[in-house]
Each structure stands twice: as C-alpha cells, then as structure tokens.
Input
Amino acid sequence: MKPFKGISARAVAGFACQQGFIYSLFYIGDNHAVAIGGMSLERFDLLSTFAFMAVSFIIALIASDRARRALLAPTLVGWYAVLLVLGSLLVTLPMDAGITEIVSEGALVGLSTGFLLCAWGRALVGAPRFAGAREILLATALGAAASFAASALPIPGAVEVLKLLPIGSAWALRSLLSKQNNDSLPSSNTAEITGTESEADAITLSSLLASPQERSATKRLSIKIVAGTALFGLAGGLMEVFSSEPGMLSTPALPATLMIVVLFCVAAAQVLAAEADGESGSSRAENSFSGVYRTSVLLIMAGYLFVPVLGGFGITGQAIVLAGYMGLTCVLMMLFATIARASGQDAACVFARGLFALFIGEIAGILLGNVLEVAQPSATQPYVVAACAGLASLFAYLFLFTERDYEELTSIAGGIDLFGRACETITQKYGLSKREAEVLPLALRGRTSERIASELYIAKSTADTHLRRIYSKAGVHGRQELIDLGERLQHDLSHGDRG
Output
C-alpha cells in the first residue's frame, strides 16, 4: 500500500495547516457563555463563528462566477489568512467578554475561514478521486496531530503557534489556485473571444450576483444529502454543550479525540491507497468509499453508547463521538469533491452548500443543547443531550444520507475519472494542442460546434477548425468515429483496472 502515491505534498501540507487551525479555533480554549434573557447561552463564541461562516457560504453561493473568482483569488486568500491570524492572536477574549466582543471576533475569523474553505474546495477537486480523498484524509491526520501536540504536550507557546497556521494554508492555496488559473487560460487569441474587451471588463450589479441558471446549478446537490449533512451537524452541535460548563475547557477530552482522528484518517487513507494501487478491483471502489463513511458513523454511535460507562477509564464517550464527527466531516468533504467532479459544478459552490448545511446544523444543535440544559434536571441532562444527538445521527445515516447514496455518487465520479483518462490518452497519443485538448471532451460528449464555441468563448468557425484537426490527428473521419474511439478507450481502461 502506498498512501502517498499520486498526492500533492503542497496540498496536504497546506490543508493540514487549515485543519489544524480549525481544530485549535473550535476545540482548544474555554467554554464562553453569555447571558441572554436570563438564560446562560454556552459556547456563544463558537455559535458566533459558525454564524459568520454560514454568511460567507451564502455569499459564495449567490455571487456570480466572476464575483466568486474575485472573492477566492490568490491575492485575497493571503489577506484572509492575515485576518485569521490577527483575529486569533490579537483578540483574546476574557471569560467576562460581552456579546459585542464575541461577535466581533466571530465576524473576523468566521468570514475568513469560510472563504478559505471554499477556496480549498477548488484546490482539492483537481486531483483524481483516490488522490484527492487521500489528500483530505492525510491533511486532517497531520492537522489533528499538530493540535494534539499543542494541547497535550507541555510546550510553552505551542497553542499560539497553531494560530499562525493560516499562513501555511494561504501559501499552499495561492500556489495551487495560481496553477489552476494558468492551466485554464485559453490558448487562442483574444480576438476569438465573443464580446468586446470593454464589455468583459464592465462591472455591474448583475455581474456580481449569480444568474438564475447559475443558482439552479448550485441546487443540484441532493436535498436528501444536504438534509442528512445538516442533521449530522445538529448532532455535533448538541455534543458541543455536553459535559462542559462555562469557564471550563470547551473540550476536556480533546487529546484522546485527536489521537482517534489521526488513527482513523491514516487507516482510511491506507484503504483508499489499496484501491489506487489496483490491489482491489475497481468494482469495489465504491464499497471502499462508503466503508470509510460507515466507519465514521459507527465511531460516532459507539461513542454515544459508551457515554454513560467510559468516564472512569480516562477516555470518555464524548471523546469518541467528537472523533467520529471530525472523521465524518472529513468524509463529507471527500463527498463534496466527488459531487463537484461528477456534476461539473464549481467546487467552491458545492463546498459552500454542503458546509453551510453542516454548520447551520451545528448552530441548531448548540441552541437545542442549551434549551435542554434549562429544561432538564442537571443529573439527567447530559444523557438526554447525548440520546438526542445519537438519534439524529442514526436517522441521518439510515434514512437521509445512506451508504447507497455515497456509493452511487462515487460510482458516477469513477465514470468521470475514466472519461478524463481517456481524454488524456488521446491528447498525448495523437499530440493534440492545448486548445484541441479543451475541445476534445466536449466533442466526445456529442456537443455541437455551436455549443463548443459557446462554452469555450470562441467563434464557431474556430471550433470547426479545431475539430477537423482532431479528426486528422486521431485518424478518424467524423464525430461518431471520435466518440467510438473514446468509448473504446474507456472500456479498455476500465478492463485494465479490473485486471
């Protein structure tokens, strides 16, 4: 098994910095509470951060493609990292901090974190599904290991060092996004582009908001999956207020949680590496992906079952639940990347929509947990919260976001991968130019010359010229023979994987 084969070290290191910072932001520190209407609202700092992250996801979803590219441009990514460092280092909230101070910090770090996660969605979706999934898993393991070292080992200033991790995240993101932007630049002359330069550069209100067609595209993420993700978030939010009082550590068993996360991610990466190396048939790939999802949910459910009995053994059920939830969040990001690859949507929109559902669920869970604390006697309240969280997770797994859903999505992504590999094979074997390589997948999908010209912003005559050159180089006599060639290659590649 080779868990590091085919992955980008820069992507792993950068996303590990992002994950490590998020863990330090969410779980290292004290349980802040504020008094609202005579009720003490726990984890209000986390609630505020989640709320502003949700705002950033909404902005990413309603923005036009052009505005979204500007929001997630490499230059702004660096500034988001600077804001995160300033927000986490310079704004140190005392336990008696008021609503204004907590909301201000939440806005500073929440908005920036949300935009960085959307940008990471774009950066991670470019890798093949096995490599991209392993990048997410290995980065999460490294981020969790760094947070473990800072929280569990007596190293002065270690926790403060975690606050600098967004710099590493931005460094990797700027490089990855810049490379993607360069790779996507058209090779044709600007005279081929439809419309004038002044029209392309004009900035209007309508150019900043998504068109109805773009908004419709962002809704392709299954409502069923979004509902399941939100319910998992609800369960996670409920556990955020479990067994922690205002003034105490927000996550008392965090070191144990982080160690479980590291083991889970490394083991899952090894399973997926076996698929990538051909040690299992490709027909079992979907089972491997859904198996990782199943394991994360089972870890969560095991924690709920052991909440009443493990307290005296040094590792609480809460620690297992939180580890499973972190692992599940990692698996969900793998799913979002799969959806983006399979549907052709902007990965930033897919991540924004999925993570919005997850964190809105967490907000609802934190609020519900606080309500249950008021409604139930202190002796039974923790177990009521855990029971509600367990039921929410079980319902989501059995009736909303099931293993079959995950298998179907990964199967679709597998077909996309084969199609992409077939395009690469034709491009390399027949020496297609960069622009011809851009036309090829559209031609293989049966697009007309008019549609190709529209999607690539070139003249129809230019599209016809590229098509004729592709036919000549590939030795075919028309569109149907080219499509047949692509289908044969996909069949051969699939047969080779199974062999």
